[in-house]
Amino acid sequence: MTTSADPRIAVMDDATALPRKNGELVFNAPWEGRVFGMAVALNDQGAYEWDAFRDRLKASIATADTVGETSTYYERWLQSFESLLLDRGLVSRDELDRWTERCAAEDEHDGHEHDHSQHHEHDHAQVSGHEA
Description:
It is a single chain. The chain is mainly alpha-helical. The chain has a domain at 31-109. 52% of the residues lie in helices and 3% in strands. It has five helices and two strands; from the N terminus they run H-E-E-H-H-H-H. Strand 1 and strand 2 form a beta hairpin. The protein starts with 6 loop residues before the first helix and ends in a 23-residue tail after the last helix.
């Protein structure tokens, strides 16, 4: 069965608008593309409605802006995605931590080292059995 991405993803606006350059999505690190792809794939599979994720992302961005947090768009995306997965019981905290460690190790092994001291708990989330 072939599915296409929810059209609401492409037209997100306001603070939730996807980072683009010349109309193309912009990812500054491999984990950003992975977490974007996972969020889209799980939505396509019916794990949650896109609006549930978008509302969470919007709240995360507003909260971060209010307190002056310097996190990036995809760090906020990741935090929103992780909290949605945990709240829905789609992944456990232990599974999330294991995938985070695995992905961080893979990125470092591949020469994609970057700062792991960001203002969020996980730089590289993957969902068991749902890799994008």
